[in-house]
Amino acid sequence: MILDTSFIIDLMEMDEGALNRHRKLVEKSETYRVSSAAIFELWSGVGHSKKSEEERLKVMRALSGISTIALTAPMAEKAGEIHGTLAKGGQGIDNIDAMIAATALLENETVLTRNIKHFSRVKGLRIERY
User: Which residues are bridge partners to 2 per DSSP?
Assistant: First the structure.
C-alpha cells in the first residue's frame, strides 16, 4: 500500500476515516509506505505555512515509523510518461500525483487516497479510498 499525501494530511488532521483505515492497516499488519514525492509535498506545505513549527511537528509525527520509497530513475521516467500522456489527452494530473502513481505501479502496490479524481486517470493503477 502506498500512502498518498492526502492520507497523511488527513492523519495529521485527525480525520476519522483516515484514522480508522490506519488502525486497520496496523491491526492486519499490512505493509504500507510513503513515496519520497509525498514527503516533498508535505514539507513544501510546512514551508508555506504561517505556523511552520507546528506543521513541522505534525509532519514528523505523521511520518514516524512509516517506510519511505525513494523515487528512482525508472519511477521518474514512468511519472513523466503518465504526466505527459494525460496532459496531451486533456486529463492533466499533478506532477507529485504522477510520481506517486508511478511508484505504486512499479512497486505493484495500491494507492490509498482521497484524491480519486486524479489517480483514476492512470491506467492500471489500483486505488483504495478511505
Answer: 33, 111
pLDDT tens, residue by residue, 47-77: 888 888 888 999 999 999 899 999 999 999 9
Number of structural domains in the chain: 1
Three-state secondary structure call for residue 97:
helix
Please state whether 36 falls in left (phi above 0), alpha (psi between -120 and 50) or beta.
alpha
Q: What does the block give as the cell for 80?
A: 513523466
Q: In terms of residue numbers, what domain contains 50? A: 2-129
Q: Which three cell numbers stand for residue 82?
A: 503518465
- Between CA 76 and CA 8 the distance in angstroms is 22
Classify 72 as helix, strand or coil: coil
Mapped onto helix, strand or coil, the DSSP state of residue 107 is coil
CATH classification at residue 57: 3.40.50.1010
What pTM was computed for the model?
Answer: 0.92
Cα separations in angstroms, 24 against 19, 70, 89, 97, 123: 9, 25, 37, 24, 27
